[in-house]
Amino acid sequence: MLSTFLAFLGACTLIAASPGPSTMLIIQNSLRSKRARFLTVLGNETGVFIWGVTAALGLTALLAASQLAYDVMRIVGAAVLIVFGVKALVNARRGQDGEADHSAAAVRSGWRAYRSGLLLNLANPKAAVFAMSFLPQFVPENAPHLATMIGLAAMWAVFEIGYYGVYVWFVGRLKEVISRARVRKRLEQVSGGVLLILGIRMAVES
Predict the structure, then answer these.
(1) How far, in whole angstroms, is CA 174 from its chain's centroid?
(2) For 46-104, what is each residue's pLDDT tens digit?
(3) DSSP labels for 6-21?
């Protein structure tokens, strides 16, 4: 059981360390405020947990089995990525600015950050199919399948909250550098460009 647990944590580390749309969005929203940094992570990991529970219930198998359902979700996910990418590029062009803590604007910005993290994860059909293939590998023999899968999904989400929490904390420590307009603009351009490319690639792939 201990070896399975350690193997699971190792796999979670490799997954979190692999760059992808969620990483780009976290970087992008980390330019806004401390609240936005952590709520983007929380939104993303809420999506991770939801997909884990969905996989435990066997519902993601329906998505994998239906080409039409998968394609519809793929197009929706591509559209979400493209919108986020274009928005980041527009913000970079306008030089939109950031920190607005302790204000109503910060609360709204935090909710938008959480929603964007959740939406990006839930709009990705690959995340659903991956959860379905990933989690069952770590269910021990004779263990209750549903309860164990849900427990693993929760552990996966909590682990990534900690992982990305350290990540965005480090970004916060670089506040003086990141707050420079030119640096912020370049980071917005890079993260937005990557999201746009990933969205286009998702849209055209079969």
Answers:
(1) 22
(2) 999 999 999 888 887 777 777 887 888 888 888 888 888 888 788 777 765 555 444 44
(3) HHHHHHHHHHHHS--H
